Amino acid sequence: MTSRSVIRQQIRLTRQQLSSAEQQTAAKKLVSQITNLPQFNTSQHIALYLTNDGELDTSLLIQTLWQLHKTVYIPVLHPFTAGYLVFVRYEPTSPLQTNKFGIKQPLLACQNIIPVAELDLIFTPLVAFDSQGNRLGMGGGFYDRTLAQLPADYRSRFVGLAHSCQQVSALPIASWDIPLQTIVTPDKIWRFK
After folding, report:
1. Measured between alpha carbons, how far is 48 from 58 in angstroms, rounded to an integer?
2. Mean pLDDT of the residues in the chain
3. Where does ATP bind (predicted)?
């Protein structure tokens, strides 16, 4: 089986090569897919991420959530516990800064932090996924460590977002990897048990 680092490199290159038109089309289809998720209508507090490195563009989805009066939260590197994330409320006027990985994130303000267990839906980025719901991230383990603290019955709230080209036949998995029950691509909603 191909190593995790090789898969990461190949899939990142593939998604970076998507044209602007392909990215825009994918972003529009994503909004349609997400608003058709059964758990979407009953969710108010929704975690997303700001797009980076050719990831499926979430900006149109974020705009749609704001229009529907949903509250959006963005992951921010935990200021005191290395390797973990905190989720911060994100609004159209939220000031942004670039973290140590070159990723935009809202400025950390304690009054805007939500406990992870209070999020209704958590949309996670991923580099690759397989037909068993395994997710390969960027390699830092931030989402895996942060979400591992939650009870198993909470995992139905984790939803991976990816371009269709990010699917691989099988991923080498590690003991700390948290499989997803749902992955959404612009063309399909994948459900796993």
Report:
1. 8
2. 92
3. 4-8, 135-143
* Token pair recorded at residue 132: 């068993």
The position carrying tokens 């796993």 is 192
CA distance 109 to 182: 31
Token reading at 75: 């992951």
Binding residues for substrate: 50, 55
User: Residue 114: left if φ>0, alpha if ψ -120 to 50, beta else—which one?
Assistant: beta
**pLDDT confidence of residue 184:** 96
To the question of pTM greater than 0.90 for the whole model, the response is: yes
pLDDT of residue 160: 95
Annotated binding site: 4-8, 50, 55, 135-143
Distances (CA, A) of 187 to 32, 33, 93, 101, 105: 10, 8, 32, 30, 28
Q: What's the one-letter identity of residue 85?
A: L
Tell me the three state secondary structure of residue 41.
coil
Residue ranges at the known binding site for ATP:
4-8, 135-143
Distance of CA 170 to the CA centre of its chain: 20
Question: How do residues 158-187 score in pLDDT, each as one tens digit?
Answer: 999 999 999 999 999 888 888 898 999 999
The helix/strand/coil state of 123 is: strand
Please give the Cα distance from 50 to 28 (Å, whole number). 16
- Quick one: pLDDT at residue 175? 82
Domains of the chain: 4-191 (3.40.50.10420)
